[in-house]
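Changelog-adjacent note: as of this version, every example in the card shows the full chain rather than a window. The one below runs 117 residues end to end.
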Amino acid sequence: MPETTRELLTAGGWKELEFGPFRPDVTIHWIRPFEGDQPGVALLKYEAGASVPRHRHEGLETILVLEGTQSDEAGDYGRGSYVVNVAGTEHSVWSDTGCVVLIQWDRPVKILEEKTT
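Full-length structure tokens:
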């Protein structure tokens, strides 16, 4: 696996990394999985129209949008946007066009509602 560096991520080198299942139409590449009290760091790749249901942040979450646009109830975040969600906040996330984000979670989120079909 190639070394994950700021240059690799911002220059689009993430396109060469392997992503695995995370949620429907959202895949993940773990840079540093959760371990003990250590935060998790990953890349999330949303297909166009993908979403993550309403969830609560149990710890701090920070996001850097590397490509495309990620959206939540507060707005749309394009490439280069830096988003901070503090512990206790809730929202849903989606991407109409598809996007890739670098994300760090202090703790895993708690999913509050799942869509049923």
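Structural remarks: The chain is about 5% helix and 50% strand.
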